[in-house]
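Case study.
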Amino acid sequence: MANGENDFQELYKETLKKMDDLTDKQKQILQAALELFSSQGFSETSSAQIAERAGVAVGSVYQRFQNKQALLVAVLTPLLTQALPQAVDEFGTTAFQHSFDDVESFVDAIVPDRLRFIDKNYAALKLMADQIIVDDQGVINQLKAAFTNQMSTNVVPNIKRLQKAGKMVDLPEDYIIQFLFTAILGYFGKRLLNMPVNMTDEIKHITAFLTNGLMKH
Amino acid sequence: MANGENDFQELYKETLKKMDDLTDKQKQILQAALELFSSQGFSETSSAQIAERAGVAVGSVYQRFQNKQALLVAVLTPLLTQALPQAVDEFGTTAFQHSFDDVESFVDAIVPDRLRFIDKNYAALKLMADQIIVDDQGVINQLKAAFTNQMSTNVVPNIKRLQKAGKMVDLPEDYIIQFLFTAILGYFGKRLLNMPVNMTDEIKHITAFLTNGLMKH
Amino acid sequence: MANGENDFQELYKETLKKMDDLTDKQKQILQAALELFSSQGFSETSSAQIAERAGVAVGSVYQRFQNKQALLVAVLTPLLTQALPQAVDEFGTTAFQHSFDDVESFVDAIVPDRLRFIDKNYAALKLMADQIIVDDQGVINQLKAAFTNQMSTNVVPNIKRLQKAGKMVDLPEDYIIQFLFTAILGYFGKRLLNMPVNMTDEIKHITAFLTNGLMKH
Amino acid sequence: MANGENDFQELYKETLKKMDDLTDKQKQILQAALELFSSQGFSETSSAQIAERAGVAVGSVYQRFQNKQALLVAVLTPLLTQALPQAVDEFGTTAFQHSFDDVESFVDAIVPDRLRFIDKNYAALKLMADQIIVDDQGVINQLKAAFTNQMSTNVVPNIKRLQKAGKMVDLPEDYIIQFLFTAILGYFGKRLLNMPVNMTDEIKHITAFLTNGLMKH
DNA sequence: GATGAATGAGATTTCATTCAT
DNA sequence: TATGAATGAAATCTCATTCAT
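After joint prediction, the assembly is written out as follows.
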C-alpha cells in the first residue's frame, strides 16, 4: 500500500473497464473481500481467508485480480465511482434541487438521509477510513476528486443562495460543507467505537445542532 | 493552557523516564515503534525496521517484549493510561475551571487548544485511529474509559451550568460534547486527507460555527 | 510369518498410498521427516532439512502441515494407528494361531520374528522411543492402546492355555508378556548402543533363556 | 549433540578435574538442569528455563559451564563417574562378594537393590536414555566403559563360578548380564510409559522369572 | 562470581503469488 | 475459468552465548 498514486490510478482505470463482466464467483470474492477488509483491515486479511469466505479456491482470486492491491481497488472502485458519487450527487442534487426556504428544512433534508447512508455503507466506509489512515494516496485522491466535483457543481451554489437570502451564516462554503460532514460523521465514529446509537435521537439532535449552527440568527 | 503541557510526545517521554525498569535501548525501541506504527501503521511495520531505527538488534526487541502485539500494547498503554487521560484532564480542568460568562468564551477556550493538541499529537492520534479501525477492543475501551471519566467529572457540570443560565442550547450533555469533538476532529480529518490547512482560519471558523451552534439565541 | 509382511516401512508406504489426499511431494515430506526424525531426533531436525531431503521448498512443508509438531503427528499417526497395530496383530494372530505343545516352540515362534522386526523397523522404533522419552503422552497412550488391545485378545488366552497345561510358569500374564518383550528389547538396546550384534547368536541365546525362564520345570 | 566423541571426552575430562569446588548456585544449576533435561529432554530445555528453576541469572549458567553441552556433561559426569560405577560396583562386588549357594539367592541379592536404584535415579537414567537415543557417542562410550570395566573384573568371574558349580545355565557371561539387565530395565520402561507399578510385585515376579531362567534345572 | 540486557544466527512460520492440471 | 499445490521471500520469533556492570 501507500506506494504512490500511479499504481492505484492505473489499476483503477483498468478495473473500471472490466467492471461489468463479473462472474458469480468474482462477485462473491469482492463481497468477501469487502467484508474482511473492512472488519479486520486490509493487511490483516489474507488471500486464503478471502477465498474461504467466498467459497472459491485461492487461485480464483488471482485469476481475475492481478494481486491483492488490485482486489482492494476493485472493491473500492464501484464505491468510489458509483456509490459515493451517487451519494454525493444525491446529497448535491436531490437534496438541493428544491429551493429550501430556510436552513431547517435544508438540514432536515440532509441529515436523516446521510445517517442512513452511513448505516447502509458502514463496511465500505470503514474500509475507506482504513485506507486513509494507511495513507493510500490513491484512495485519498479519488475521494477528494469525487467530492470536489460534486460539491462545487451542486452544493456550493445552493449554499451561496441561502447565504445571500440572509438565512445561513456567512462562512466559506467549504467550511459549511465541512461542518455538515463532521457533525454527521460523529455517528460513524460512534459506531466505530461500538457505542450504542439510537437513530431517532441522533437525527433529532444532529439536526437541531446543525440548524442552530448554520442558521443566521 | 500553557503550550506543550499536553503534548503526547512530551508526556510519553516523561512516562518512559518513569519506567525505570526500562533500559535506554528499550526506550529507543518504544520510541521507534511509536514513530513507525503511527506513520505506517502497525502491520506495515516490521520488527527489523523497528530494530534498525532504534539502533538495536532484532533480538533485542523480543528480549523485552514477548511479541509484536505486546510491543504495540507497550507503546499504547502509556499513551492511553498516562498521556491521554492527562491531556483529557487538562482539557477538563484547565478549560473549565473558569466560569465562562457565555458560550463564546467557552468555545474560545477550547477550540484553539484542541487544534494545537491535534497538531502536536498527530502521530499518536493516528496510531490510535488505526487501532480503532482494526477493531482493537482494548484500545477502544481504554479510550472510552479515559473520556467518560474526565468528561463526566469536569465537563458535564460546566455544560449544565451554562445551560441553566440559559446561555447554551438544551441538548443532552453527551451530544454537546460530541459536537465539540466532531467539529474539532474535522481538522484531524483534513490532515489525514493531506488537505492544506491554515490554523488561523480553522480556529476562526470552527469557533464561529460552534459558538453559533451551541449558543441559545 | 512371511518375511516383510510386518515391515513398518512397507506398511507405512502402503498407508501413505491409501492417503490419496496426499500429493507425491507431501508423501516425500512425510518420508523425509520419518527418516530424519528417527535418525536425529525431532528437535534436532529442522524444517529446512526436511524440505531439502524431500526435494521441495520449505513453504511446502507448511502448506500441508500446520506446523512441525503436526508433521510429527502426521508421521507417527499412521505408524501408531496402522503399522504398529497391524504388526502387533500379526504378532498376536500369526504367532499364536497354532496350539504350541510346549514353551520351546512357543518361544521359537516369537523370538526370531521379533528380532527381525526390530531390525527392519529400527528407525521407526527409535522415533517412538524418542517420543516416549520426551514424554509425548499422545504417543505413549497410542502405544499402550495398541498393545493392550492385541495382547489381551490374542496372546493372553494362549498363555493361559499353556499355563493350564502345566507347561508354563504360573506368573501373571502381563508379566509373562513383559519378560518376553524386555528380553527381546535387549537387542534394540544393543543396537542403540552401537554394540556389535550377531543375529544368529542373539536368537539362539534369547530363545534359550526365555524357554528356560518361562518353562515350568 | 552427537557431534563426535572428542568434544564430549574433552569436556568430560576437564569437568572431572573441576568437579569439587562447586558453589551453592552451581549445584542448584546442576540440579535444575538434571530435572529439566530428564523430564523434557536436552534440546527441549532452554538455558533460561534452567536459570529460572535454579533461581539464578542466565549468565551464571555460563559463568561456570562453557556451554549447554558442557552443562549436560557436568550433569552426567558425576553419574557416570560416581553413581553408576558405584552402582555397577555394588552390583559387582557387594552382590558378588559372597559365594552364593544357588542362583536364587544370587538373584535375590540383585533384583530388589537394582529396582530401588532405578527409582532413586530415575531422572538421571532417563537423561542417559535420552542421550543414547539422540546418539550421543560420548555418553554411549562412557556408559560402555563403565560397564565393561566393572563387569569384567567382578561379575564375570562370579558368574563363571556359578556355572562351573552346575547351578547356572551355560550361556555366555555377557548374555547372562544382558538378561539380568533387561529384565530389570523392564521396570524402567514401565515407569517411562507411566504404567502403574507395585514394587513388591515387581520384585517378586522378576526374581521368580530370573531365577527360573538362569537356573540350571 | 553474579547479573541480565544485548546480540545475531538460525529456526519456524506466513502468505502473496504462480502455474500445471 | 477454476483449482489448490507449490513456491520463496520475508516476517516473526527463539535461544545459546557474550559482555559490561
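Observations recorded in class. Residues 46-48, 58-59, 61-62, 66-68 of chain B lie near DNA strand F (CB under 10 Å from a C1'). Chain B has one domain: 4-214. We will return to this complex in the next lecture.
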